[in-house]
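Regression test case RT-17, inverse folding.

Input:
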């Protein structure tokens, strides 16, 4: 039973770190002020980086369906805490679910 809780902590910490990294690279305030085309390329590049990290994490930690769901919920919650709009958070999460099997 202890391994279950420890794995949850690892998943939660990883989700928070990825959300914090996205926030540090592209804060929500920047989305309102910057040129959309220029920012779009940068945003796509950041999402690709997150996809690669998430794929590696899932393989190394052998995440179950529950673990994947926990990651996505924690990640989305952290992005909302940082001030991203709910629609954008949902789009980011959908992108991750499609690109990371």
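Golden output:
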């Amino acid at each position: 039973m202890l391994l279950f809780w420890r794995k949850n902590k690892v998943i939660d910490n990883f989700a928070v770190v990825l959300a914090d990294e996205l926030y540090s690279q592209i804060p929500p305030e920047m989305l309102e002020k910057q040129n959309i085309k220029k920012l779009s390329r940068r945003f796509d590049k950041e999402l690709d980086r997150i996809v690669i990290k998430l794929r590696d994490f899932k393989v190394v930690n052998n995440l179950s369906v529950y673990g994947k769901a926990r990651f996505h919920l924690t990640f989305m919650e952290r992005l909302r805490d940082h001030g991203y709009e709910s629609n954008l958070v949902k789009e980011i999460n959908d992108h991750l679910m499609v690109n990371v099997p």
